Amino acid sequence: MASNSSRLASRSLGKSILSIVLGAITVIVTSLATDQLMHSLDIYPPWGEPMNDTGDNLLALAYRTMYGVLGSYVTAKVAPHSPWKHVWIGATIGFVLSTLGAVAAIQQDLGPAWFPVALALTTFPCAWVAGKIYEYQTGDTKNASQGESL
C-alpha cells in the first residue's frame, strides 16, 4: 500500500501536469478559434493559402500574444504550488513547440518568416507578464523573490 506522502506527491504531480496542459489548451483553443473567426469574416485569406499581409500577421501576433499571457496565467492559477516554476516549464514547452512550428511554417512558405519566429520569441515575455499579473492579484511574491527557477 502506498504511503500517504507518496499519494500526495502523486496527486501534486498530476495537478502540476494539469496546470501546464490547461495553460497550453487555453492558448491553442483561443488562438485557433480567433483564427477561424478571422477566416470566416474574410479578414484572413482562406485556410491553406499563405497569409502575406503584414497587417494580418500583426493582428494575429497581437491576439496570440494576449492568449500566451492568458495561458501562462491559467498555468500559474491552477498550479498546486510554485506557480513560477510551472509557468517557466510551460513556457519552455511552448517555446520548443513554437520553434518547431516556425521551422515548418517557413519550409512550407505559409507567410512571412518573421511571424512564426516572433511567436516563438514572445513565449517567455508572455510567461513573465502572466507571472507578474498572478503575483499582483494574489500578493504571492514569495516564490519570485526567492529566485524560484526550474
List keywords for this structure.
150 residues, 6 helices, elongated
How does this model look, in words?
It is a single chain. The protein has one domain. 77% of the residues lie in helices and 0% in strands. The chain contains six helices and no strands. The chain is elongated and about 55 Å long. It is mainly α and 150 residues long.
Helical/strand content category: mainly alpha
Number of domains: 1
Annotation field: number of helices: 6
The low-pLDDT segments are none
Tell me roughly what share of residues is in helical segments. over 70%
What is the global morphology?
A: elongated
Nearest-integer average pLDDT: 90
Radius of gyration: 18 Å
Number of strands: 0
Order of helices and strands: HHHHHH
Distance between the termini: 31 Å
In oligomeric terms, what are we looking at? single chain
Describe the structure in brief.
The protein is mainly alpha-helical. Helices cover 77% and strands 0% of the residues.
Topology summary:
Elements: H1 4-40, H2 54-78, H3 83-107, H4 114-121, H5 123-138, H6 142-145
